[in-house]
Design a protein that fits this description.
single chain; 651 residues; alpha/beta; 6-stranded mixed sheet; 14% strand; binds iron/sulfur cluster
Length: 651
């Protein structure tokens, strides 16, 4: 059957709420860079940061409760009868008086907090920083949404709707007016889209669980406003959903295409021919798996939920194990590595090293030949973000050069490692630095390769930077660490996971604790902050092993800048081969994790108790946690590490 197609569509790519509003979204910036290089322009909207700006904007302070279209933009005076307005008093002033003390103080300081978070000094004053973050959180918590909603700067929860249940996501789409960002959808998003000439195609980049319910509310809103518009949903979370065993398409009639993996070629096709090569026969010419959930708004065919083509490559990215399997990331971090993700996965020719990523490389082979382009951040004004200067997110490699850790999707899927050539990395950074004048570069690689670290040490980029690195001999050398620091390295995120050698070996982390110790001291001596990730409750761990982790951290507490402590979750993809007795956590059909019987009886409940009692209360660990930025965590920690002052690396 011939599917009707339109000539080229105008593309709008949107990053939905909620994720930390501190840096521009790398996923849609990367797509825009690719499309631009192919001669296709598109509009980018960071609906997350724009949404928060709207919620914290003038409407919050100066508009009256109940004004048409503005309802609910003023914090609720919880449980208090409202005082009658005094003569000459504005409604806003009256409302302020009706609030509790904390909320009132937070409201009064709102402008100052927003200003302070955009300047450096606050980051060297932990108490003031914590107060600012807590006050913003208080205001968000007090805005009168439905009682079931808990909105934070990095999180979104709904007591009635789950982001891992497709029927709940459809319910969110059915009632967008119940979402806290609905006023922004009307006053911010809709006018932006109204000026775009049809035919319009909207791509939504969904990477975090904390985005899911708001993304679907936004889709429901867009579907009502733009019934003829094609809506495409991609990103890390969508890829994870579609790659689960027995995955099905639950969004028939709402979303036109679900895209797993790379989205570049799909979107390019869409922009050039509005679906040609995508709908007919479900075939298209580029990487990525396309699921047609609804072929055409005018077409009554049954949905053709299918994977039509294995991805040509995976633009894998992100995080270390902690960021993959921990409780802490369930709402504020990418759920999976993959392509159309906010980690702005790179693709490119094998590079950086002549043969592999550098000293000690024992991981996967690098694979060559994927087209790459430079991400385009020009659509995102720096003032949108809560940071003391523009942050430039950049990915120098797809995949992971180690690719051996157990329970990591990189290992399970054997995703190829694809580093960009060194000259490409430095050319991109040079161009982006000129365009953005960043205060900080955030390397998004799963683990920066030894070759990339060495290249940066040799050729400083002139801007402070940080990223994930594996614990290797290279970082144990004090001289090398000093060179890294001189090149602008402010902080390295290290997935230590455990202070017990047996657990590390069972996880195949490739980490030797003696080396880890030397790495921490060398980084400390060089002035590079170590942001250490710990993971408790893994199958090989027991209470004694967990205690050894606590001892290791305590012994190195003066060398550890910041800590992330997380509880292990078993990914669903690993359940079958884990040899563990597993069961589902909930009836969520989109859940990515399963519960399991711990082989050593180290149950989740016991691990939680241990974390609360013996870990977080340990004086040395508590001190590190106190200086670890709440909510924004590693995204703001480099500014804390810079001590609020400016740091000028050599260039
Ligand atoms: S270092 Fe290990 S956990 Fe991190 S991405 Fe690579 S294989 Fe996965």
């Amino acid at each position: 059957m011939q599917i009707p197609t339109a000539p080229g569509a105008h593309l709008v790519l949107i990053h939905p709420p909620v994720s930390k509003p501190c840096e521009p979204p790398a996923g849609i910036a990367r797509l825009a860079g690719y499309l631009e290089a192919q001669g296709v322009s598109c509009d980018l909207i960071d609906a997350n940061s724009e949404g928060f700006r709207f919620l914290f904007g003038p409407a919050l302070r100066f508009e009256e409760v109940g004004s048409p279209g503005r309802r609910g933009m003023y914090p609720a005076a919880e449980g208090r009868s409202e005082r009658v307005k005094a003569p000459g008093e504005t409604t806003a002033e009256r409302n302020l008086t009706n609030l509790d003390t904390w909320t009132r103080r937070a409201m009064r300081n709102l402008d100052r907090h927003l200003r302070d978070l955009r300047s450096s000094p606050l980051y060297s004053q932990p108490d003031r920083y914590r107060r600012a973050i807590a006050d913003l959180g208080r205001i968000l918590a007090c805005l009168p949404y439905r009682r079931e909603v808990v909105l934070g700067l990095a999180d979104y929860q709904d007591g009635e709707l789950s982001p891992v249940r497709s029927r709940d996501l459809l319910a969110a789409a059915g009632h967008p007016e119940k979402n806290p960002f609905y006023p922004y959808f009307i006053s911010g998003l809709a006018p932006r889209l109204a000026v775009v000439a049809p035919p319009l195609a909207i791509g939504i980049s969904l990477n975090y669980l904390s985005q899911a319910l708001c993304a679907f509310a936004m889709i429901g809103f867009l579907r009502t406003r733009h019934p003829q518009t094609r809506i495409v949903l991609g990103g890390g979370l969508v890829t994870s959903w579609l790659r689960r065993p027995h995955a099905r398409d639950p969004f028939d009639g709402l979303v036109d295409n679900l895209v797993a993996g790379p989205g570049e070629e799909f979107l390019l096709n869409l922009a050039k021919n509005c679906g040609s090569g995508i709908r007919e026969g479900g075939h298209h010419s580029g990487g990525g798996e396309i699921w047609d959930t609804m072929v055409s708004r005018d077409d009554n065919r049954k949905p053709a939920a299918r994977s039509i083509q294995a991805p040509a490559y995976d633009m894998t990215v992100v995080h270390d194990t902690t960021a993959i399997h921990s409780d802490l990331v369930s709402h504020d971090a990418p759920v999976s590595r993959v392509c159309w993700s906010d980690n702005g996965a790179a693709s490119g020719r094998a590079g950086l090293a002549d043969n592999g990523p550098g000293p000690g490389w024992t991981g996967a082979e690098a694979r060559p030949e994927v087209v790459s382009s430079c991400p385009d951040y020009r659509a995102f004004p720096g003032e949108l973000y809560l940071a003391p200067g523009p942050i430039l997110p950049y990915s120098a490699a797809a995949g992971c050069w180690w690719r051996r850790c157990r329970f990591c999707p990189e290992t399970a899927e054997r995703n190829p490692y694809r580093p960009l050539p060194a000259e490409k990395v430095f050319a991109d950074l040079d161009r982006l630095t000129k365009e953005m004048n960043p205060a900080l570069i955030h390397f998004l690689d799963n683990a920066m390769s030894p070759a990339l670290l060495a290249a940066l040490a040799r050729h400083p980029v002139g801007v402070p930077w940080y990223g994930f690195a594996r614990i290797t001999e290279q970082l144990a050398a004090p001289k090398f660490c000093r060179r890294l620091r001189d090149s602008g390295c402010i902080m390295l995120k290290l997935g230590l996971e455990s202070g017990d050698q047996r657990v590390l070996d069972a996880l195949d982390k490739g980490i030797d604790l003696k080396t880890a110790s030397r790495v921490l001291w060398s980084l400390k001596a060089a002035g590079i902050a170590a942001y250490v990730y710990l993971l408790f409750g893994t199958p090989a761990e027991d209470r004694e092993a967990a205690r050894r982790t606590v001892e290791f951290v305590a012994a190195h507490s003066t060398a550890i800048g910041f800590l992330n402590i997380a509880l292990f979750n078993l990914p669903a993809f690993a359940a079958a081969v884990s040899g563990l007795a597993t069961r589902t956590f909930s009836d969520g059909d989109l859940s990515l994790y399963v519960d399991f019987d711990h082989p050593r009886g180290w149950s989740r409940r016991e691990v939680r108790r241990f974390l609360a009692g013996e870990v977080k209360r340990h004086p040395a660990i508590a001190a590190i946690l106190r200086r670890t930025p709440p909510v924004f965590t590693s995204n703001h920690a480099p500014f804390t590490a810079m001590g609020g002052g400016s740091f000028t690396p050599s260039s």
